[in-house]
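Researcher: I'm preparing a figure for a lab meeting and need a structural model of a single chain. I don't have an experimental structure, so a prediction will have to do for now. The sequence is pasted below. Please return the structure as tokens so I can convert it later.
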Amino acid sequence: MKPSAEDRALARRLAGRFIVFDGPDGSGKSTQVDRFLALVRESGVPLCPVRDPGGTDVGERIREILLDRAHTGMGIRCETLLYMASRAELVDQEILPALREGKMVVSDRFLSSTLAYQGAAGGVPPSEIAAAARVATQGLRPDLVLIFDIDEEAAARRLSPLLDRMEAKGRSFHRRVREGFLDQARQNPGQYVVLSASGSPDEVWAQLCAELRRRVDSLPAQRTWRSSKG
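Model: Understood. Here is the structure written out token by token.
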């Protein structure tokens, strides 16, 4: 479907922002990421799409380790630090350079996922995650975190039977993941938007665009990104 003039205008108003799409496995998040990226490109807005973990040569190697079901015995702190290592490369090599160039950065997952999966569901204390994140992200925070919310039963029906290591952790784990995302949104209502992902892709998309229009004028002033090398 060709984007409307109103949708293209919305994309242009979000130029230069750092936006994260996140939520439980099976929420349909990736479908909405792809549709949003198509809108941004159609609107002529400079763009840097990334995924976390991954997005760099080192990050993609780490992603393979993290999602490989051969590593089911991996300790939760090892898992947490691998995500942070991938994120450190992503921030340093892709996200910060793009923001300095005035590009919109759209990330498929970010620190919000670590707080939900390794924190709320895995048991790593938030203080430990925050300490590692300060190193990995250089203090970078998204302008907006979009959480696609769905209950674990509905999410499980959407997942491929060929589950990766994280998807295969069971419904009780994913119930805690969902609560972890919702807790973050409750604690940070100015930064987070919760979207119901239980409807059709078109219904979720309409909700997404409506929420972005509602929030775009209340976003904090855009920051000036300085190079650490300068």
